[in-house]
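Hey,
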Amino acid sequence: MALLCVALLSPLRLAAQEFVPTKVEISTQKVKISGTLYYIHTIVKGQTLYSISKAYNVTIEQIKEANPSVTEELKTGSVLYIPDTSATPALQSETASSTDKMEEEAERGKKEEKDVKIGSPSNMTKYKEYRIRWYEDIEDVAVKHNVTVEAILELNNLDRNSAKKVKRVLIPDEEYMEWFASFQKESEMGSESHEEEQGEEMMDNHNEDIGWSLNKFSSYTPFDKALITVILPFNISDENPGLPEHIGDFLSGITLATSMLNEEGKLDNIKINIVDINSYPSHWSMINSGILENSDLIIGPISMRDLRPISDYAARRGIPIVSPLDINTRALLSENEKLYIFPPNPDSGVRRQVLKMKEGNTYPNNDRIVVIFEQGYDESDVVKDCITALNDEGMSYSAFSYNFLDGREMEQTFTSKLDSMNLNKVIIPSYNEAFVTDAIRNLHLVKKTKGYKVELFGLSKWTGFTSLDTDYYHQLNAHFQLPYYVDYNNPETKAMVERYNKTFNTEPTPFAFQGYDIISLFVEAMNRYGKGFEWGLLKEKYNLIQSDVKFTVTGQGCGIENSALRQVEYDRGWTIIVD
């Protein structure tokens, strides 16, 4: 028995003697959440909380506090947020006044010339608070205190719309007004200089129709060390300690992409720095802090109000900047030629559908093009866009309208308007869910009872209609041009979803896909084209997880928008084909 026990235990002793703990490599990726800097650490098989805590010089309790759901049994591939204890004092000092910062820089003899020449103190308590009377607007307040409206808006981090809702504002003092005047002057000078440079460039590159010359990006020059700065509003407070859901999902998508790209060696020369815009009292204080200065690419902020001042700064410094979520930021395209609007523009959907209807046809052809719209809406934008596109393409068509309240009696009308022998390509230029549902029901009825051939061309907003039975889409072989569509049969999608599920114990949302796509696209472009990644982004179309991307310059001196839509077809064989 004793010999048996020895024999059984011997392999265990040998295994223990040969065990070598997995080395913990310090991550190069960091994220800043609510003023605290964290390493983003991806767990490798064999690592433990103890070995990770020792490597990062933190306690196990600190790791558990930053990651409430973590257990002693770590999952390989999962992500941990590790507090950067060495950076804590520096982060705390970021909220100190910019005046103090400049004095410290002067004492060190390292003061550098900045875009903002005079730094206004970020200590907001020094400014007088004014309670706006019910009969006053922001212009009245400015006149009353002998300051400008623009200065009040900047100091209080407001725009004109949000200023109408506030009841109290801080009033700029003389020092602030001096700084703001200097800031505006430099902005104007920068804009004039930028226009002069554009003019010279156009003379040198007279064959370029629009935008900055692509020729200067024609040769590959790698980055020694590139910096991508991602600006997000975390909105974390004592009352609301967690990230807003959509921001959390967006950040999770970024984190997953970062982890996977790092494993592939694509972040060796690229650093991603995530910044909470709400940790700064105003936009100018963020700019004045210097945190954006060395950026080779800025992603965010996500809203129009926050993006405009950061985009202005990026334009003066020649830094490409990406609007990641808000399609309304297209209004800023005329102000910055290096502004990239990532969300696809759905406005061209109707014309795209007309072009799709034209595919494979010769004129004259046997296919009948039929336009069905709601009675009384012939002057609506979507109907006019559809008719204009058909006329521009020289396509013959028949059109009719009806009141959907009479839809139950419309079968005969539909029968008379459609071709009983040839294929009917039908487009319904309407965003009215009730009307669209009724029209599709009638089309399906005619097809089913009369045997008519019908092919439906739908609009992207229909995918949000809850009353539409997708069976009709398959029966009518519906075609869509969609800004977003996730093909879960795609192997790359499957790999991403599986990894996301293992890492975060949940399914990715559209915001998570968006964060993943954006980081993946721009990191890939930086690796492939180096410092010429802007040229590379314009060169071709990219097929990502959730959307397609084809960046197009929108005009002379204007920014760049994503003009790609994803083509989706509901096949009669009950499959969905994604082109």
